[in-house]
Design brief:
The chain is mostly helical. It has a domain at 48-196: Ferritin. The chain has helices spanning 4-16, 48-78, 84-111, 120-126, 139-167, 170-192, 205-210. Bound molecules: fe (ii) ion. The site of fe (ii) ion (FE2) has 2 residues, from loops. Residues 76, 92 line the site of fe (ii) ion.
Length: 213
């Protein structure tokens, strides 16, 4: 007489039979279909060398944008002091805008037939933005750090935008100017105004009188 266990495994076998084609094939490995740094040419009427040069520049901007995006999240979490609520929200808004830029830049790289960087270790190796301490910084130091990162990004983006325009890669030039440069310049304005040392409650009347104002 068949045991209970035998009966159960017979039932399982019945349940599995006929499902071979719909079972997921797990633990697969294969060679890369495109090595990093190589161009899989697409019909976009741009020379392969132009695509490669633009992709290399864009990957630098991508690594720095991902780093700046993450710096905003760090500050969003770690901000302290009486402007906590305002800066907590502002840092997150800028984080989200940088995150949109990340996708725009990465997809531009893919549109050029190249491969965009993606993973944290590769970003850390590539970015030129100085690594912040793990600990918490005061608000003025947080804002200064962000402004310096923005300026590094803006400087490289402007140079690369000019290079793209000269090479005839108008799409890359447009991403760098319309998206990267414009967004970063606007964010710099919103941040930098927080470092202007003006009275919060009482206007400085003594200074106004002595300057004849
Ligand atoms: Fe949050």
């Amino acid at each position: 007489m068949a045991s209970k266990t035998d009966k159960r495994s017979a039932t399982y076998n019945q349940l599995e039979s006929g499902t071979e084609r719909s079972r997921p094939i797990l633990h697969q490995n294969a060679r890369e279909i495109q090595p990093y740094g190589k161009i899989a040419k697409l019909p976009i009427a741009l020379d392969e060398k132009v695509c490669a040069a633009s992709a290399e520049n864009l990957n630098q901007v991508l690594a720095d944008t991902i780093t700046l995006r993450d710096l905003y999240k760090k500050h969003h979490w770690q901000v302290a002091g009486h402007t906590f609520y305002q800066l907590h929200l502002l840092f997150d808004k800028h984080h989200n805008e940088q995150d949109e830029l990340v996708d725009t830049i990465a997809e531009r790289i893919q549109s050029l037939g190249a491969i965009s960087l993606a993973m944290a270790a590769d970003i850390a190796e590539t970015s030129i933005i100085p690594r912040p301490p793990r600990g918490r910084e005061e608000v003025p130091a947080q804002i200064s750090r962000l402004l310096e990162a923005h300026e590094l990004l803006l400087k490289e983006a402007r140079t690369m935008a000019r290079q793209a325009a000269e090479a005839g890669d108008d799409g890359t030039n447009d991403v760098l100017v319309s998206d990267v440069i414009r967004t970063n310049e606007l964010q710099v304005w919103f941040l930098a105004e927080h470092l202007v040392d003006v009275p919060v409650v009482r206007a400085d009347e003594a200074k106004a009188a002595s300057s004849g104002g």
